[in-house]
Fold this protein.
Amino acid sequence: MVNDGTIGVFLLDDHEVVRYGVRVLLQDQPDIEVVGEGATAAEALARVPALRPDVAVLDVRLPDGNGVEVCRELRDRMPGLACIMLTSFADDDAMLQAVLAGASGYLLKEVRGASVVDAVRAVAGGASLLDPAAASRLLDRVRADAERNDPLGALTRQERQVLELIGDGLTNRQIGRRLFLAEKTVKNYISGIFVKLGLQRRTQVAILATQLRLDRERKPPS
C-alpha cells in the first residue's frame, strides 16, 4: 500500500486509449492510486520493481512479449505483488498459463468498469478471482488434462485431505481443526502440495480441488 493506505496500481497495455480509460476509472476511487504505466513488457519489468505497486493490471498480448511472462517474472521478484490479467481475448491457453504464473485474476476487457475496480480491491486484499466465464473454461481445461493424468499421484493421504478442504473453502485454521493439526503443520502440507503439483498459489489448488470434486460427483456409482 501507499503510505496513506491507498492501493498502488501499475497499468500495462500497449493501447494508450485503454490505459487512459482504466487510469481514469481507478483514479476516480479514493482508495486507489495509479503509480505508473507502461506499453511494453520491457517497460513493466524496469518500472514495476522501482515503483513497488500493490497490484499490476497487465495486458496479455504485448508488442515485445506477453503479460503472462511479465506476471511470472514480476512475481518472482516481488512475491507480494498481485497481478490481474486484463485482455480482449478469451484465450483458454493464456488463461491457464496466467493462473500457473501466479496471476490473482483474469478479466476480459468487456467487463463493467466497476468489476475492474472491485477486482483491484479484492486482489490487493489477498483474494483471488477469475472472471466467471473464464473460470468455467479453466475448470473444463483442467478436467480434460486430469483425464490423461493422475494429478494427485504424488500426494500423501494427508495432503489429499488438505487439498480437498481447500477446495471446500476452509482456511488453514479451519483445516487444522478439522484434521486435528497445528496451523503450522497445515501450512507445511500446503507447501508440499505446491511443490508436488507444480503450483504457486492457493487459487490453483482450490481450482484443482473443485474440479476433482465435480468429477467425483458426476461419476456414476460402480
Notes: The radius of gyration is 18 Å. The first strand starts at residue 7 and ends at 12.
